[in-house]
Every structure is written in C-alpha cells, then in structure tokens.
Amino acid sequence: MAEALRIGIAGLGTVGASAMRVLAGKAAELTRQCGRDLVVTAVSARDRSRDRGIELGAAEWFDDPVDMARTADIDVFVELIGGDEGPAHACVKAALEAGRHVVTANKALLAKHGVALAEIAESKGVLLNYEAAVAGGIPIIKTMREAMAGNTVSRVFGILNGTCNYILTRMEAEGLSFDECLKDAQRLGYAEADPTFDIEGHDTAHKLAILTSLAFGCRISADDIYMEGISNISQADIQAAGELGYRIKLLGVAQQTESGIEQRVHPTMVPTASVIAQVHGVTNAVAVETDILGELLLSGPGAGGNATASAVVGDIADIAKSRPGFQHGPVFGRPARELNPYRKARMRSHEGGYFIRLTVHDRVGVFAAVAKRMADNEISLESIVQRAPKSMNGTKKTVILVTHATTEAAVRKAVEGVTKDGHLVDKPQVIRIERAD
Amino acid sequence: MAEALRIGIAGLGTVGASAMRVLAGKAAELTRQCGRDLVVTAVSARDRSRDRGIELGAAEWFDDPVDMARTADIDVFVELIGGDEGPAHACVKAALEAGRHVVTANKALLAKHGVALAEIAESKGVLLNYEAAVAGGIPIIKTMREAMAGNTVSRVFGILNGTCNYILTRMEAEGLSFDECLKDAQRLGYAEADPTFDIEGHDTAHKLAILTSLAFGCRISADDIYMEGISNISQADIQAAGELGYRIKLLGVAQQTESGIEQRVHPTMVPTASVIAQVHGVTNAVAVETDILGELLLSGPGAGGNATASAVVGDIADIAKSRPGFQHGPVFGRPARELNPYRKARMRSHEGGYFIRLTVHDRVGVFAAVAKRMADNEISLESIVQRAPKSMNGTKKTVILVTHATTEAAVRKAVEGVTKDGHLVDKPQVIRIERAD
C-alpha cells in the first residue's frame, strides 16, 4: 500500500470537527477506497483547550495556521478558518507556495483571491479543491470542473443560500412575515445575529462568482454582481406569485449574453411546477444548461457541519487517490492564466419577464395610465390583475402586471413613469421571472 | 505540453458519432482543460461505407473491434457497441488486458461482467470509466464513486428509464391510455419497436445493479432484482394517485435493510410535492441518502446521443488529466476483490406504504370483508375510499386503500384473502409507496 496521506486541518469549528469525526470514523472504508491511509497529523485552531468532542490523537498542535502550512509534516492543508483575508488567506497561500495540496471551504477567499491562488497551485503542480465552498454537500464543482468537460455553458443558476430559502419557504407555507421568519431562523441557528450577509445576497454572490468562472472560463469577478436581497419580499408578493403559478426564490444567476456575462442575485419567480421550485427549506440547488448535455440540476444540503464535511472529505479523498507527480486538471476548469477577462453585461440590458406589483390610489384613470406607461415602453403584458382588497378600505387598490420578455431598461423606465404620474401609494415592487423547467 | 491522448472508438451509432463531433468541435477547449490534445486515432464499426455525417479524419479503421482493442495505437478504448456479450464484452476485456484505459456506456455489460472487468482493470492499473452507462448525462457515477467518499449510503433510488417516464408523464398530463402513449413514444423514437426491455423494467434494473454496487460496496447482482413494469398501470391508478397526493413513477430502488439489500424496480407512488415527482418526460433523476451528506438528488437527460456523449467525453477527459503511472480509485468505489458478497433481502420483508385498488361487486358486506382482511393481517390504513363510478353501471364499485407502513408479506396475504372471498371483479392492483422529499 502507498504511504499514508498526511492531513493538516486549520480551523476546528463545526465543519472542522465534523471532518475529523468522518476521517476517524470511516478510516477503514476511506483506506479501501483510496488505497492508502488518511491520517490527520497536524491541527490548528484558536483555542487549544476548548472541548470539541473530538480526539486530536497524535496530531501535532499549531497555534499559528501559517506556521502549520509552512512547516508541518503534511501533504494536504485543509483550510476551514473562513474570511477572505487574514489568517485564512495567508495560510492557504503559504501552503500552496510550500507545494502542498489545499482543500478549502472558503467561498469568500476564493471569490476574492481564487485566480491568484489557482496560479500558485498550478505553477507548483498541486491541487486546490473547494467543493465545500459552493452549495455545501452538493458536488457542483466536481460536476462543472470534471464531468462537463467539452460542454459550453449558457446559464447556471441556483438556490445557494439556505437561510434565505428557509425564510421564503416558511413565509409561503405559513403566511408569516419576513421578520417573523427571520427571527425563527435566528433562533434555530439558520441565520446569524447580523443576518445581512445572507439575506441581502452577499453569500449567494460569493458562490455565484465561483460558478461563473467555472461556467464561462473567465476570471472571478464577485464585485460585478447585481444584488438584491429578500428583505422587501412581502406576503402580498408571495400570494400573488402563487396565484400566477410562480414561487419566489432567491436565485444566483449567471448567463452568457451577447453583450457579456450577466451575474445577478435577486428574488426570482420560478414556475411552481419546475423542479427548482420544489427545493424547500435550507436545501440548496444548482441548475446548469449546456449545449451538449442539456440541463442538469443538483439539489441537496447546502450547509451544516456534516454536509460540508462530506465535501471536504471527498476533496481529500481525490487527493489521496492521486499520486506524487500527478497533475490534475486546472483549478477553475482551464488554466488560471488562460481564464478570459470578465466581460460584464449591463443589468439594464437584461431580458426576461417581470412581475410588477403596484399599490395605487383607487380612482378613475389609474389603470389606463399604468397600461399606457407599459405600452409606451413597448412592454407586452402576459396578464394584468386589478384588485381592491377589503383591507385597503376602498381607498387603494393593487395592480399586478406580468410582462412578456422585455428589458430591464424598459421596465425601469415604465415604473419610473408610473411613479411620476402620482398614482402610487407605496413603493412599486418589481420581481424578475426566470425560465426554469 | 504532454503527449496527445490517443483514443479509439468502437461503435459509431448515435452516441459514437456525437462523441466524435464533440471531440472535434471542442478540441481547443478540451486541450486547455486537459493540458494535452485528445485525438481519435482509431475507429471501428460494422459498416465502413455508411455516411454518419462525421469526419473520420486520419483515424485508422478497424473492421474488428477486438483487433482494435489489442493492436491499435491508442491509450483509451471507448466501447459504444452495446450488448452484454459478443464483441462488446470481448473488446473491453481485450483492451483492459492490453493495459488500455476503457470508457464504456454499456450498462448491460457492466451489470453482467462489471466486477470481473474491474478486477482486470485494477490489476493492470488502468481506468474503467462508465458514467454514460447510468442515467445518461447525469454524473451519478462520479458523484457516488468520488464525491461521496466517506459516506455510508442507506438508500439510492431513481427514475432511470426515460421511455417509462415519458409514458407515465403523458398518461397523467393528457389522460391517455398506456397503449396510446407507448405508440407515440415509438413514433417519436423514445421507445423501441419491441419495448419490453424498457417498459418491463430490465433497463432500469441494469442501471440499478451498478448503483447498488457503488452504494453498498457489494458485488453486482442484477439477477436478484425484483421487477415489475408499467404496462398494467391504468388511468384509474394515475387519477387515484393524483387525488391522494401522489404521482406514479417507475423507480429503481436499492436499500440497505436489516435482512440484506433490497433491489427493486416497480411503479411507485411518490408524493406530488417531492422533487422527484417533478421530473417529467424523458428526464432521469437519481437520489442518494447517506449518513453524512444527507439526501442528494441529481436530475437531467438520461438518454440521447448528445447527453450520453457528454458523459463519455467527461470520462475521456478524466483519463487525459491523469498521467502515466497514475492509479485512480477503484472501479466500483472499493477494490473489486474487496467488494462484499451481495446479500439479498427477501421481497416479502419489504416495509413501506401500499396503495391497493380493488374493483368489487357492488353488494352488501364487501367493504366490511375487505376491512377485515386488512385488520387480520395487522395492516393499518391511512385512508380508504369507496366509489361507484357511473361507468360501472351500478354493478361494480372501486375500493381504494392506502396503508401505513406494513410488510409486503402482509399485503400479499391480505390481497389473497380478499381475492378468495370472491368479491373481486377484476385483478387487484397493488402499488408501493416510496418516501421522498
């Protein structure tokens, strides 16, 4: 049997502890699968004395992960610290420069420094695996990086944040408000005390940026992502969506268009009968459309210690099955130096259907004025519903429009026009509709 | 750059021609991804003169695929001939024995000879890749063999035959009979002139046998699969399923139970709100449940030249990225010689919910007799519906039972009892219910 693979783990939080437990508990089967033992020989975390419910065994302790990356007796450095700068960045860079394979679950780090780190990995002939960084346990990186060789991707989209999907699922199922669901998510540990990063779409954007690079062979550009969160989604939107045959999901979407690549994160209406619409709660899902394979969808747990640890262990096993001197495919599908520059499509050029919900004064001529603004901007309507719910006391009414494919620019102009007309009681709500099977 | 990977393709039908087109059309991108050129240097098919709409270029022609496997100047032998014996078996065996990597789309061959072929591959240190053999373009082999390292699988199930799913989808959507839908499927090329292999579950069983080995680390045992096809599914079943919140799918299911491994292929009721219930038409889907990752579902095109070719090219690319002397993981997850013997669970021990539809004489006491037979066999009922549709002219009625979890043995005994009681007008219909999220 080949020599044991020596593993160093930096960061012993939920995921790190889970990974340790899996590596120990499934040691015999992993050895059978990989043809060699997988042994944790070094660990590093902030607090040595904390009880994590795991055996550190004979693993050497390092207070400093960068020191571990440089000097420990390891073949693979596993980074589970988190954060796009500081020790996480420093130790991954140090490990790659020292010629060690790296496994990381750090989406923020890759979204910011992924290409530079890939260049180091490729020049050193080592692997940089990051399955756990996107959609937790779902093997979307392996699928796009390996299984889809030869495919040209036209669109990749997905539910990439469990917190948001949990909130939207409960809002729909139980008729609760956004704030009530967020509080429950916080109580259950699905949302942070400061939930901004999740609910405003930043987390989804980091993951999307990585998928975009894999999809289109371009450099990662997380700063160029159009972003809208879910905090302004109301019961009125969710109910109207349901009546129209849609469900609202926070999607990350990357799409190749004539004017460049669209990267956008926003609440999206998907057809209720589509597969992605059935992805409930904290579950994630990613769909990829290509010229040869067609459309593929993967769904599964997007977070949690065990699911994330599963992806980390899969990445380590891939390294264990490789042999010294072996060089696997490039980190982002094609060599980092050959990644195309990112060419951004303007959001105003986005084409698609739109849901527009307007709360207007209940007076003569409003409906006609709204219809005219749409027509003036050459927006063709699939449906238009006008309602005067009792709760509005006869002074206001709701107008809900669903457009055929049009442009973002046209919709913005039309809605600006309606606003100027002075009929609106409330801020207009605009939600993009996404095609999905 | 490394030397070109030399590829020999045996079988130039739909999939072979598609693979040739992808390898030629995406040559530059594949070279970028793999770090070397991928060149088809040899081909073999039955008829050299046939126009396949592809350029054979400088590839050497072989009339005999076994001859090509042994003597051609190739690194990878791609078998796209089909069939579990004859030339397909002979040439794959010859190629492996000659120390060449093999890529195959042949589920029948692997279901029968997979373990023996894996032993040869592993002893020669070459790869045997077969992503295209199960669920076409869906990367389920890569997912189970690589991404799920360290996971213990409890159940794998899926829609593995596009023909059956197409028929069931149309029956439900359009209220057509099985025979009408089958005829349309044949006209559209989704079903063979002799459709037995698809509609009676044999094709699903071959694919399931491979997934079972990957899931449970056991030897392949396709002959031990319990099998029921979809030809006796009627509109009455589909409509009753819909009313009860279920949809009927032909599933292949493999499950670890206390008494051994269950492998079964049969029409199955899955909850309408589950993800797998939204998989329509010729699309396939596979779900895997494990201890660490949780539940993962993949859906996508399960057949067709391009989707299958995508999987074949992915397999070839994986070989191209490997280097001489490199040994990847074992063919079926663990080394062929260490695969466990297959321990079969008795179908009578299967536990689950059941849908039972009885057509009975419309007379006093029938309902009570049916209920008594269920109670006598300790079957607890979730729902029981009695109906006398007009079409039955007042002489017959329908009794539909949905049971809580019980055993196959109990259900068979109860249904035998009801049959003996002499109340049945027609053959009883029994459809298993499968838990799915």
UniProtKB/TrEMBL annotation, chains A, B:
InterPro entries: ACT-like_dom_sf (IPR045865), ACT_dom (IPR002912), Asp/hSer_DH_NAD-bd (IPR005106), HDH (IPR016204), HDH_cat (IPR001342), HDH_CS (IPR019811), NAD(P)-bd_dom_sf (IPR036291). Pathway: Amino-acid biosynthesis; L-threonine biosynthesis; L-threonine from L-aspartate: step 3/5; Amino-acid biosynthesis; L-methionine biosynthesis via de novo pathway; L-homoserine from L-aspartate: step 3/3. One of its GO terms (biological process) is threonine biosynthetic process. NADPH binds at K107. It comes from the Bacteria. Residues 355-437 form the ACT domain. Keywords: Amino-acid biosynthesis, Methionine biosynthesis, NADP, Oxidoreductase, Threonine biosynthesis. Its EC number is 1.1.1.3. PANTHER family: HOMOSERINE DEHYDROGENASE. Belongs to the homoserine dehydrogenase family. This is Homoserine dehydrogenase.
